[in-house]
Amino acid sequence: MTAPRNKTEDDITAEALQRFAETPDPRLREIMLGLVKHLHAFVKEVELTEAEWFQAIEILTEAGRMCSDKRQEFILFSDTLGVSMVVDLLSHRKPDGATESTVFGPFHRLGAPELPPGGNIAHLDKTGVRTLVSGRVLDLGGKPIKGALLDVWQAQSSGLYDSQDTNLGELHMRGKFHTDAEGHYLVRTVRPVNYPIPSDGPVGRMLRATGRHPWRPAHIHFVVSADGYEPVTTHIFDRTDEYLGSDAVFAVKDSLICDFERHASSTSEAVQLGIDPPFLTAEFDFHLKPASEQGATVLDAQQRLAALGAAD
Ligand SMILES: [Fe+2]
User: Fold this and answer.
1) Which strands make up the sheet holding 174-178, listed edge to edge?
2) How far is the CA of 167 from the centre of ligand 1 (A)?
3) What is the pTM (predicted TM-score) of this model?
4) Helix and strand tally (H, E) in the chain?
5) How far is the CA of 190 from the centre of ligand 1 (A)?
6) Which is nearest to 222 in space by CA: 231, 213, 214, 234?
7) How far is ligand 1, taken at its centre, from the CA of residue 183, in Å?
């Protein structure tokens, strides 16, 4: 078929769709046709100007240039636009008793140390409130899972992750813990604090230009995995945080909100770990569902990030 010479914008859309219509892989075909359809519709709806189009190219170029082993500006874009959470919700549609997932975020790093139960991930943090996080990893029937792996990461009490802290030359506030025979885990850390997401790049400019705040409610990140179970990427949030209702990345789910309880006097566990009061404890149980046939998991996503240049 010969394309008409005097093309309208709708002719271009139709022609672009036609070019992708023969894509052999059916899923790739569906994605490309949907992308072209919605991207063209968006451009037409807002009547994008050439200057705005060029600005968008500059923003994406700058985002790409900012990415390194310590910075992932594209994940920040995805998170702050709400896309990460829409993908999360589509992937975990049915409530099934398993712990709910939330965004992976841009701050995971490979190479966190393996720590024993009660190991301190905050050994360099001198200003945070001492905190013990404990609980169990269980299957959907409530049976303990022995040897489950908890990959934990958290911002320091300064609000900065190790990768953002120019005074730090090493990994900090990260650790890998395993559950014991009863499924118990115990992490020593400091109280999580709320923090603004990095605002020195295009994502920060977008938030300022649109009158949005960059704050995330206090949380601790976990990826919990065990042989034969589906891993879960999630956070636990502090119930008292002022930003629970307006997380800059839309990641709060009610079931992930947790109490951080203050202790003015010691407990046997605290004595054993050499922790003087006052300190906080938080308890959270993770429930894993059996592994499904579907291949792609968040662990795969971590490996892909590593391939993008994330440091090991
Ligand atoms: Fe975080």
Assistant:
1) 174-178, 149-153, 219-225, 232-238, 257-258
2) 19
3) 0.88
4) 8, 12
5) 14
6) 234
7) 25
